[in-house]
Amino acid sequence: MGKKKIILHSLLFLFTTFITILISYITSDRLIWSFKLGYFGIICYRIFVSYCLYLLIIWVCTKTISLLHKKIFLFLYIALIIGFILSRNIDVAAINLQLGKIDDYSVFTFIGNIFMFLPVSFLIKYLYIIRTVYTILLISVSIIILEVLQYILNKGCLDINDIILNIFGCLLGIILFDISKKLKNKIKER
Questions:
Q1: Which of 38, 47, 73, 128 could form a disulfide with 87 if both were Cys (CB 3.0 to 4.6 A apart)?
Q2: C-alpha–C-alpha distance, residues 146 and 157, integer Å
Q3: Which pLDDT tens digit goes with each residue over 89-111?
Q4: Helix 118-127 × helix 67-86 angle, to 10°
Q5: CA distance 104 to 149
Q6: pLDDT in tens, 65-96
Q7: What are the domain boundaries of the chain?
């Protein structure tokens, strides 16, 4: 990548970051504050949204997104998940090990727990040559570590239901990747 292109991409990212901050102040901060996020979570959210806007502009202009940009997207999405889970301003340190025991669960939380790790597993399978078993193992261990950290740091409840729903979302992402890969191969055969 040439020096001009690096400067252009840097300026474009700074511009999208500025636009994201403006949009956040006007609209989405009310929604984000309802999650009781700390500053780390808000910063992760804004950087992720800014990068999504940056990628959208790149895609509109070039009709392609490089592998490096896709990997950065995955990294920022994981940072967003960590920011959302570990920066909440809640002083709760409870453990729920009862399967099916759901306290103060809304449909939004239930669906959010399923779909939170779906893109991670999909993108890991898409971007890296890694066996499905290792993908499931890597994400499952990460989910358990995040849940334990959430408990240790008093940022939420260590909940077995969250772990199960997150892993189910991971499996769903792998299934969707396999389906999309098979569909892509069928289209190529025609």
A1: 38
A2: 11
A3: 666 556 666 666 565 556 777 88
A4: 150
A5: 21
A6: 999 999 999 999 999 999 888 887 666 556 66
A7: 1-89, 91-190
Count CA within 13 A, CB hemisphere, residue 157.
14
* Angle between helix 160-189 and 118-127 (nearest 10): 40
According to DSSP, the β-strands at 158-159 and 95-96 are parallel
What residue spans of 34-190 are helical by DSSP H?
39-62, 67-86, 107-115, 118-127, 132-152, 160-189
Element (H, E) at 11: helix 3-23
Q: How many residues does the chain have?
A: 190
Cα gap 169→188, rounded to integer Å:
28
CA atoms 83, 136, 115, 48: torsion sign: positive
The C-alpha atoms of residue 143 and residue 160 are separated, in whole angstroms, by: 11
Closest CA to 21 of 52, 46, 42, 53: 46
| pTM, two decimal places | 0.84
Contact 5, 66 (CB under 8 A): no
Tokens of residue 79, six digits: 């940072």
**Contact residues for 19 (Cβ-Cβ < 8 A; gap 6+):** 50, 53
